[in-house]
Amino acid sequence: MKKLFLFLLSAVFTFSAFGGVEKMATPWKTPPRRLNLQSYIGSMYYYAANFPDRFRLEKPGESPLGLPVYLAIMTDREVPDTEKHVILLTAFHSEAERSATAGLLAFTEWLMGDSSEAKESLQKNVILMMPLCNPEGFFLQESNMNSKNFDPYAAGRGNRINLDTLQLKNPQDGPEHLAYQTVADRYKPDFHLDVHGIALHFNGQLQPMTLGRAGSNSSLTLWDQKLLLIMKNIGKEKRFGIMEPGIDSQRLIWGSTMGKKQESFCDMGQPYYYCAMYSYFRHHTMLCILESTYNFSVTEPIKALLRQANQGFSSDRIKDFAVNTIKTNYNCSLESYGLTRAERRKSRSSLWQKQQYFAIGSSYPQSSNYMIGVVAYGAEGLKKLTGSIKDSGRWGQVTFADLLNSIANDNAITIPEIKHFISYAPPTVQKIMFEKGVPDKDSAEPNLSEGIAILCTLPTAENEILEIRLNGHPVSESPVDGYECWSENGFTYIRVNIPPERITKEKLFLVTCAWNPKQDIASDYGYLPNPEIKKWIDTKLNDSAGAADLVNAKKIHQNYIESKKKPGR
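Below the sequence we write its predicted structure tokens.
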């Protein structure tokens, strides 16, 4: 009986320890689908030959040994591009992480299909795709490097690039990156998704899919959390997970000043330059990274992105990707200018390269009902604002009195109206605080020839707008030369559009705005005990445990006041 019991017990443990694994599927016994040169080049030309109305193939560059670096331009060519978003999809890291290229090719197959969603996406977007940015690393050696030992994804974390000019130190080493730069400069994309992934060494290879952050660089972060959530939630809908490691573990990005505390921050959290950042630095393109495994972990987030792009983004007036704000000082922002997406894209790229010459600020302290927003350009604008171009650091301030002296001889500004508005300022609001840029002292200040927009943000959704003026002149409603006003997300936005013909003459712009919130918020400040608490304080505090603390605190306070009165202090 004892032997039978031990046998049965052994059988139970054997089943619990080994019985499950025997039922496990073994996908690694099936060879992976690994892309070869013929399949890749053939697929590119297949789409070009069979879908000329929506797929155009270009070759903006070649690898050092002459392998093609392709660009697919996918859009409905019968629809003008004026109001289309421009979305760039790349696979910079696919030489060693092949699922990126595979996923983008799977996405292309869907986009060339007959679904109504694919057709709408082509009508409303220009989708640029560089599905294989390092063909030598992919096909010849399965390495991050090309034959010149150059990594088109990281470029030695910036060591092989002149970061001041964003040009390669040795251009002949990285023609693949030059091809990408050509595409970025030509199209100035609104959004750039760089897809990473796994090597496909064996079928069933897996890694957690992540969005908005590269495994090697936490600075490649998508800051538009609404868009990040839209793309991430598609994983829940399609029954696969997408991680956000930095967010999941509440890790901040660290820098060299943190010393030993780096263990509490993101792994690889210190920002490094990676080549995908070029479109951001040049054109203020929104940047996002996707770590993929399965094809659907590439196709589904991109489809979710396009679904939102087709619908449009925030703002009743401008439904663009959130890239039009060039510089902001909380309630006053410098914005790109233009009636169409194409015009705003051009303006955004140009202003982004001149941002260091702008000073932007507002009346301070910020006040309900009353605001002066300020944008000044270059040395001339700064001198008009402060009466001086003296470099006194990144931040500056000017009193209203000094401002009136500085602009006294400016014929573009109606001084009496500015004086009148200033006279109604709250007693404590008597200056303008502004942030200056850091101009490039090694090059001449560029001319400002394109229009700009100034966005003033009021903290309440319902307001009676009493007055809007630009440099003292009344402003009428106009998307070209005037103001627009709308409410969204609890704010009221006032966008003042300034056309190019004014920019060439004026370098200082003062937006004055007076409004009354329709909500009763003026008295909702500070704290006073309610009647019940006040009654307890008046009648019972001296008999409670808090009495001694109160006596001691009053004594400390009085002693401190007396010490300030002593001579020599």
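The chain has a mean pLDDT of 89.
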